[in-house]
Design brief:
3 domains, binds zinc ion
Length: 379
């Protein structure tokens, strides 16, 4: 049966099933050696069957240690033939990958590129991105958004010789070890479908929780603007679809001493300046802050809200300021951020998609709601 299926797939090389993407694995890590544990007996290095082994860098070359040995050579290619191989190492999460994996090195650091079928990759991405959701229709909306992003961004790392990295810089991909049945069903149930605007693949941005209203793209990443990434009210007034999300509302005390430190690190203020106050100086159509002002002893410094959100998140943790949808309640030593939602607020609200699915909406309704004017098509 498996053999027949392979034959059928091989007969349609142009279909989505036959297409692959090159993904850089562990892209945020500097790795000098990595352990491999093949799952099943079909994992090969050339024509030799691979056992548990270790691959390590040697300057600009790689070598393999284990039952079979290889290298140092420029590249090593492992073929999993539909099975998988577990990768792990010091400081690296242990993950299962399928497809072909090519190892190379530069300056004693391993570079790992995984050639994986698009739909397998997508099931992994959807598992990671929709992990907290439960409804199939929400997963399907997520699958179409993730596939659209994939199609649109296949050239993200073209200059570096691969398509996408596995971090949130592109889309988070953590392999196939924990792919959920719902994610797989969602990818299969929307096979090949992407979001189009006037016949062209759309920018299908998404985020965790909008907090009641999504934001117009041009206020989050000015000056970019797209007619389908506008602010939409997320459900009936007072009862947004995403209000079911854990952490829908949040509060954070931002002490001026901490803000001073963060603002100096971010280069918003100079070494002898102290942050003594914070106010919102411009808002987007959703009610999110679009620009903030930090008061120091001698001036007011304007900071775009997206920079503020990223700057604080990068230095104090992404839970400190979860969105730019907040009001400020000043106190003596600190300012209280009383906020809603989680994420940048542009495009689909993932928890809103879940809320809509629970109310009986189908994935096409969900996508139309968050990306008005778009339609579903094929690439
Ligand atoms: Zn990337
Ligand atoms: Zn929402």
């Amino acid at each position: 049966m498996k053999f027949l299926l392979l034959l059928l797939l091989a007969a349609h090389p142009a279909s989505a099933y036959g297409r692959t993407a090159d993904i850089r694995l562990y892209s945020l890590h500097k790795i000098s050696s990595i352990s491999l544990e093949p799952e099943g007996r079909d994992v090969l290095l050339g024509d030799r069957r691979l056992g548990p082994s270790r691959i390590y860098s040697r300057g600009a070359a790689v070598a393999l240690d284990g039952k079979i040995k290889a290298g140092p050579v420029k590249t090593l290619r492992i073929s999993t033939h539909g099975a998988g191989v577990w990768l792990s190492g010091p400081g690296l999460p242990r993950r299962l990958y399928t497809g072909d994996i090519v190892f190379s090195a530069a300056r004693n650091s391993l570079r790992i590129i995984n050639t994986v079928p698009l739909e397998v990759y997508l099931a992994g991405v959807v598992t990671g991105e929709a992990g907290d959701l439960s409804r199939l229709e929400a997963y399907k909306a997520q699958a179409v958004a993730a596939r659209t992003y994939l199609v649109k961004h296949l050239k993200n790392h073209a200059g570096e010789g691969y398509n996408l990295c596995d971090s949130t810089h592109c889309q988070l991909y953590t392999g196939t070890g924990e792919v959920s049945a719902t994610a797989r069903a969602a990818v299969e149930g929307t096979s090949g479908e992407i979001l189009l605007y006037r016949g062209v693949p759309a920018e299908a941005y998404y985020h965790s929780v909008c907090g009641g209203r999504t934001e117009d793209m041009s206020y989050v990443w000015p000056p970019e603007r797209l007619p389908y990434l506008v602010s939409v009210r997320d459900g009936p007034a007072g009862r947004p679809y995403c209000s079911i999300a854990p952490g829908f509302r949040w509060k954070t005390k931002l002490y001026y001493t901490g803000l001073t430190r963060l603002a100096r690190q971010a280069g918003w203020i100079v070494a002898d300046e102290e942050a003594k106050g914070l106010r919102i100086s411009a808002w987007g159509p959703s009610g999110r802050a679009a620009e903030l002002e930090i008061y120091t002893q001698r001036r007011r410094v304007k900071v775009p809200a997206t920079d503020f959100y990223h700057g604080i998140g990068r230095r104090a943790g992404w839970n400190a300021v979860r969105s730019s949808y907040f009001r400020l309640l000043p106190a003596r030593d600190y300012v209280m951020l009383d906020g809603l939602g989680n994420g940048h607020g542009v495009g689909m609200c993932q928890w809103g998609a879940e809320g809509m699915a629970r109310k009986g909406f189908k994935y096409r309704d969900i996508l139309k709601h968050y990306y008005p004017g778009t339609e579903i098509g094929y690439d």
